[in-house]
Amino acid sequence: MKILSVLQYKKVLAGVTGLAFVVSGVGVASAVSADETSPEQMVSASASGSVYGGKSDSSQVVSTERLENIGQVLENVEATDTTARDMVAELLGGSAQASKELASLVDPSLDVSDEAVEQPSTPAKKLEETLNTDGVGLLPEVNETGEVSIKDVETGGEFSLAPAGAQAETVEDGVAVTRSNVGASVSHVDGDLEGQIVTVINSENVNHADFTFDIPVDHHLRYGTDGKLDLVNNQGDTVATVDAPWAVDATGQQHLPTYYELIPASSTIRQHVDTKGATYPIAIDPSWWWWTATATTCGIEVGALMATGGVAAAAYISKIVAKINKATKIKKVADAVKQAGGAKEYAKLLAKRAYGIIYDKSPNWIKKLIKRPAKLTWNQILIADTISLSWDIIADLAGFGSCVSLVRGN
Q1: What residues contact 86, with CB distance under 8 A and at least 6 apart?
Q2: Count of domains in the chain?
Q3: CA distances from 247 to 88, 146, 200 (A)
Q4: Of 9, 12, 121, 396, which is the most buried if we count CB atoms within 10 A?
């Protein structure tokens, strides 16, 4: 499961259990929708005196200025270590296809260990200096039992996940490996500040893995859309998300049917996987992240776009231009590019159009955290919509992929 460990900042839009395949996030089998969830199907952090969570009272509110400082630092943090991915690949048996699939499922790790924080120029040190100020500790944590804790950068609320019944084995570069009767689990934080626990299941008698959770008081988990789980506060706002699960087997076969089940009595998320026809072992992964961090990153990423009236200041412009140049073989696209004033101007128009769609699709409380987009005329919209590139692809190319996560989470 991916937790948004250090803050899912750059993405705009997230356990090894004992089988020999990897789980990746197909749909939730439950018939309960986000709007239809009954009280019995919610995991509450405060109902009837039973507290599921409670590590943080979420009372600390961080200033807008500090959020912007955090965003700037996170935007420049890069995670390149592949320790977690390599460990999962080895546990799966090391097939070339499985390793290829894992490249897109397990992001590079960000070492947030005490040792990394003590080094003067590491990403962890830079984050620690920015996040852990004014007595508010917001740096994510990964401990030897495989628990990953991520903090909401605005409130300090803590959302933790851990492989159930796990025994510590090794901790290396901020990546924890644990063992349980299900299999082995690899816990880490990635460069988008997401927490992730990949469990590799080795036994053909096992078709699920359990993850215990701890959430802030006055919050509850409920089934969301497309297989996700939503963490909801007492105002009814979704403030964090557990991404839809995925599952992959030892051969690299994708899309094994998998879904979450909430078990309130034991503060547990159970990930089920249909292992029919799969080759063991199997890898499964839940991941989670806080919306505030993502929204803050989104705001930073579109800063140049809003300040300059285009993406002239962004290095990503060349990526969009390259896509446009390929598409100009189609006459209507070539005409649209000409109307916009050339490929570079068309790229700016596409970026603004994509961000406008993201803004419109975002919930109202998120709109308060991100910048209002520049207005486009109907003619500009028609020109921008000529090319067959989806808004999320354009957003990724333009360098504000984090904003995409906001919409997908919603």
Answers
A1: none
A2: 2
A3: 13, 19, 10
A4: 9
221 and 139 together in one domain: yes
Contact 403, 10 (CB under 8 A): no
- pTM exceeds 0.85 for this model: no
The residue among 277, 297, 317 that closes a domain is: 297
Q: In this structure, is residue 302 part of a structural domain?
A: no
The answer to whether residues 231 and 180 belong to one domain is yes
- The burial of 65, by beta-carbon neighbours within 10 Å (0-12 exposed, 13-18 middle, 19 or more buried), is given as exposed
| Token duo for residue 146 | 């495989």
Task: Assign 3-state DSSP to the chain and report helix, strand, coil percentages, each to 5.
Answer: 35, 25, 40
> What tens digit of pLDDT does each residue of 92-142 get?
988 888 888 888 888 888 888 888 888 888 888 877 777 766 555 778 899
Quote the CA–CA distance of 76 and 55 in Å, as a whole number. Answer: 29
| Domain extent for 324 | 307-409
Distance of alpha carbon 211 from alpha carbon 220, whole angstroms: 16
- Cβ atoms of residues 313 and 307 within 8 Å: yes
Q: Give the separation between CA 256 and CA 22, rounded to whole angstroms.
A: 8
Distance CA 305, CA 279 (A): 47
Q: Which residue has the tokens 């899912």?
A: 8
In whole angstroms, how large is the CA radius of gyration of the chain? 21
Which of 206, 231, 248, 224 is closest to 106 using CA atoms? Answer: 248
Q: Which among 268, 297, 326 is the end of a domain?
A: 297
Quote the Cα angle for 38-44-50, to 5°.
125
> Do the Cβ atoms of 409 and 372 come closer than 8 Å?
no
- Separation between Cα atoms, residue 409 and residue 224, nearest integer Å: 9
Same domain, 333 and 212: no
User: Residue ranges of the chain with pLDDT lower than 70?
Assistant: 1-78, 132-136, 254, 293-319, 326, 328-329, 363, 365-366, 368-369, 388-389, 391, 396-402, 404-410
Measure the CA angle with vertex 325, ends 322 and 327; round to 5°.
110
Q: Return the half-sphere exposure (C-beta side, CA atoms, 13 A cut-off) of residue 36.
A: 5
